[in-house]
Amino acid sequence: MSGTVPPAPTGWALRAYLAATWLLTPLVPLLLRRRLARGKEDPARFGEKLGHASLPRPDGPLIWLHAVGIGEVMALRGLIGLLAGMLPGHHFLVTSTARASAGVFARNVPERTLHQFLPVDAPPCRRRFLDHWRPALAVWCEQDLWPGLVVETHRRGIPLALVNARYDAASVQGRERAGNLYRDLYRRFSLLAAQDETSARFLEAMRPEAEILRHLSLKASAPALSVDEAALAAMRAATAGRRVWCLASSHAEDEAVALAAQALRLAADPGALLVIVPRVVARGGAIAAMARQQGLRAALRSAQPLPGPADQVFVADTFGELGLWFRLCPTVLMGGTFGPVEGHNPWEPARLGAAVLHGPRVANFAADFARLDAARAAREVGDAEAVAAALGEDLSPLAERARTLAESGAADTERLARRLAALIGGRRGDV
């Protein structure tokens, strides 16, 4: 399969999509300006969405990898590191769509790697993007595919790979309703790889003639999140002698459980401190107010850099510091697991040796939590009483098993990296 770009049909559904992108092209600047006015686009990098590169292309071969948001982009770091070791002459371009992803990735960017926002899927935009970057390989992550960009990349003879594929029931139904559009797209890929069996079976139904590679989620093998060592030292000094635990990437339903658990915990340990890291940092003030309404003393990191001795809840309403909190807190309750969000990435705290607790709602990371739970490397806690009880236990064996399991994902990712490197073969990246 090395270097092979498979032939593929263009059925009526895909042709209709491509025609629509031509018709809608005049509206693209207007739509982007509306998003810019709502704060959803970076004004300094607005042109990237139109395919205008804001960085020069490095000399030599370049591999392009795309993911949507923060979690998906950060998961690519381990794969990039392995590819960089296998292909020392190559550079890497990571694209994403979510504005917040750029800032977090910039603090954790791998060597020889650049970041741009993915252009809108309109003919002039995608052509400008590909004309400038001229990748030797295009790697799409999870389930986000822009059909026009896929077709144009394939038309230029650039191998395509889909990795870390993950489809729940709703996304499978959506793709099936799209007729043969996705079948035609998947036939343009030289490599398809899924992170769970449900997703692998879906891809096999779409491409029965193709081998579907199985691998552990890339999030499991991603390098540890970065940290400001001075900030970590200051936080450790400020919390010395206290049992500190964390609610990470929280939403309202998670916060209600965690605050109730903290109230229970304080009865047994008056010095306990709960750090809440909201998924949306702008909610920090509302979370602190909710804690105070329940009789808990709360402070905001944006107003008070360090928790005081009397603070019982510390709301970390600052961006990009999960690496700090996962190192500080030996126990982490994962947000999104008590409400409709259905979970966030448990591998980031596991990688840093924290014991992972989670609620019952984990559909977004079902395979990940199932693997951790089965290995007794994470624990489900159904309510505030269960959280408070777990906090009173020695969870270090659970944390150690989680760290070991996270490290085992590296073997899967290395196998995937070798398959990707083989797709390039003797092909030059500056075509």
Write the layout of secondary structure elements.
Elements: H1 12-24, H2 28-37, E1 62-66, H3 70-86, E2 91-96, H4 99-106, E3 113-117, H5 123-133, E4 137-141, H6 147-155, E5 160-165, H7 169-177, H8 181-186, E6 191-194, H9 197-206, E7 212-214, H10 218-221, H11 229-238, E8 244-250, H12 252-268, E9 273-278, H13 284-293, E10 298-300, E11 313-315, H14 322-328, E12 331-334, H15 347-351, E13 355-358, H16 366-374, E14 378-380, H17 384-391, H18 396-424
Parallel strand pairs: 1-2, 1-4, 2-3, 4-5, 5-6, 6-7, 8-9, 8-12, 9-11, 10-11, 12-13, 13-14
Give a verbal description of the structure.
The structure is a single chain. This protein is an alpha/beta fold. Helix content is 45%, strand content 15%. It contains 18 helices and 14 strands. It has helices at 12-24, 28-37, 70-86, 99-106, 123-133, 147-155, 169-177, 181-186, 197-206, 218-221, 229-238, 252-268, 284-293, 322-328, 347-351, 366-374, 384-391, 396-424; strands spanning 62-66, 91-96, 113-117, 137-141, 160-165, 191-194, 212-214, 244-250, 273-278, 298-300, 313-315, 331-334, 355-358, 378-380. It has a 7-stranded parallel sheet, with helices on both faces. The protein has a 7-stranded parallel sheet with strand order 10-11-9-8-12-13-14, with helices on both faces. Helix 16 (366-374) links the parallel strand 13 (355-358) and strand 14 (378-380). Helix 12 (252-268) crosses helix 17 (384-391). The chain starts with 11 loop residues before the first helix and ends in a 7-residue tail after the last helix. Residues 426-431 have low confidence and may be disordered.
